[in-house]
Design brief:
This protein is mainly β and 208 residues long. It has three helices and eleven strands; from the N terminus they run βββαβαβββαββββ. It has a six-stranded antiparallel beta barrel with strand order 1-2-10-9-6-11.
């Protein structure tokens, strides 16, 4: 049994379920192929390597010649851990959307959007200074703590800096709908990353 699947985030929309509007994120699981199989005897663990074909080759049948130049033909290559590897074959379609039926709770991991250089108010959700009575703090970070006189700042002080492009996990999301024909998965709620980014979907471990 596989531990999860890779997908491409398309965007958000809303669907009706039981006469209620449900906000969902659409994920595309098509155009993934198995490119390598790793076994306990040879590699020390069981896993399959999957790759997403670039758009310009999406309409072509898989060719093992692609494996000789993966950067040309694949846009993303990753591994998925599995308990056994007997049922997998190099070149086969890595369509694992049926492994998670509708209603399954999943954790989705991805890279958050990059926001460049951000101040304290946006990066750390600071309130900022008052807007009246002559306050001049504005969006400044404020005091640097009691070590400021010695030219030092306490480690961990929340200051302006680079924001985003971090690994983010959204936990306990529900798979609302699966379109098996187009290999599309609808997950309730929002997911990290921008449209077109890749996310990893993993079933929730009930023993954690």
């Amino acid at each position: 049994m596989i531990r999860g699947l890779w997908a491409k985030k398309i965007g958000m929309t809303q669907i009706f379920k039981n006469d209620k509007v449900v906000p969902v994120t659409i994920m595309d699981t098509s155009n993934w192929f198995i490119t390598q199989i790793k076994t306990q005897a040879k590699d020390g663990y069981n896993a399959i390597q999957v790759a997403c074909v670039r758009d310009r080759f999406a309409d072509e049948a898989f060719d093992k010649e692609w494996l000789k130049n993966p950067k040309k033909y694949f846009v993303k290559i990753n591994e998925i851990q599995t308990n056994e590897t007997d049922n997998f074959e190099v070149g086969a379609s890595a369509d694992f959307s049926n492994s998670f039926p509708e209603g399954t709770d999943v954790d989705v991991m991805g890279i958050s959007k990059g926001a460049g250089f951000a101040g304290c108010v946006r990066r750390h959700n600071f309130r900022g200074g008052a807007a009246s009575h002559g306050d001049q703090t504005g969006k400044k970070p404020g005091g640097m703590s009691f070590m400021r006189s010695r030219g030092r700042v306490i480690k961990g002080k929340k200051l302006p800096g680079h924001m985003g492009v971090e690994r983010v996990t959204m936990k306990n999301l529900e798979i609302v709908k699966i379109d098996t024909d187009s290999k599309i998965i609808f997950v309730k709620g929002s997911l990290p990353g921008k449209s077109g980014s890749f996310v990893f979907v993993k079933a929730v471990d009930n023993n954690r």
